[in-house]
């Protein structure tokens, strides 16, 4: 007997993209170079080999800064959403999307990051984009910083290690809040803010070459993270002041870990991983550095320099909701040597024999999403927003143009079922935005053929193709889900 799963009235069904993976137009209308424009597509690397995909050095950056093409830098070309957004939004309106999560490219507003006056052409682009969305009944959910920052701030200030960057970010936030206060009601400060500990350059503009030994890099990372925490709190303050009634949240990469066995050492290893994952929301929702992370800093010899008023800002200006990404779960062991490994979102781990794998080796675990939601809500008691969830896979275009992707439908359906279970458990959920609603450039590997979209884009890993958009079977399935407000 099947169960009809109806979601709460007003549930925000939607999709998600990021400026640096979709817009393209990297050198148009005064846009400056960002950290995302440095990302190369490295052929012949193994799936999930993120460390090599995202490796960055001074030599690589110098080459990238001098290269004026997009040949080896797929995020520079994206899928040309910058010029094609009316067409793409028409598809999304047809699908019934109530919201679209997207980001503002900081370098369109302040090309170098430290200018006194914003770039009007960049501001005007987002005016047109938001107007088009609202005209089609699609609510904008805007991320202020999604894996990109001005390269000028990296080269001249050391990225987020510099306290001055907090002031530049606050200026940027003040500008966009004032400009779009009548158009955007939902905001997110930093995309997957926890990622800075795994990907210092992508998240924080930190070039490890410039900081010496690993311990110095780690010190720089946590100092930069503190600056982002403060910047996030100040953005919350500004948003509430400038846009009364707006909601502004934080965002976490959900990295749920199970113990490999019931050995207490394995249970402790999983507990520590899960606790560390929640450190980032502890600061942004509870407003304090928890005791377990203070012990971690002491054990590591890490000292965080704080300015007067930092602790007060963190305590007073906390997030209105927690948004998060969830793709897969992980397994932890006190002794992992000899155990089979798999890849996953931004990191790898031990293989769970009870879970199937995607084509990219990511474990598929819908129940882990329910557990994540329960853990977050029971800890914080504030609304949750599932802003990234989806399946990266190869898609085949049939001779008649059809794209049959039952594997994606199965993935989305099984995860949406678990969101509904969490709601029945009493978890308050604002909405769900499937990643990415349209094919775009992969964050981790900068490839195109790892496809998440419900809308197909005709482009290959090397940028060849017509950019024609096509509906996949999942497009029609999700349209039905939205129309029925559930499964």
Q: Could you describe the largest sheet, including whether it forms a barrel? A: 8 strands, parallel, barrel
Give the beta-strand count: 14
CATH topology: TIM Barrel
CATH class membership: Alpha Beta
List the helices and strands and how they pair.
Layout: E1 12-16, H1 19-22, H2 50-53, H3 58-66, H4 74-77, H5 81-95, E2 99-103, H6 106-109, H7 120-135, E3 139-145, H8 151-157, H9 164-179, E4 186-190, H10 200-204, H11 214-242, E5 247-253, E6 257-259, H12 264-286, H13 291-300, H14 310-316, E7 322-325, E8 330-332, E9 341-344, E10 347-350, H15 366-380, E11 384-388, H16 406-424, E12 429-435, E13 455-457, E14 469-471, H17 473-483
Parallel strand pairs: 1-2, 1-12, 2-3, 3-4, 4-5, 5-7, 6-8, 7-11, 11-12
Antiparallel strand pairs: 9-10, 13-14
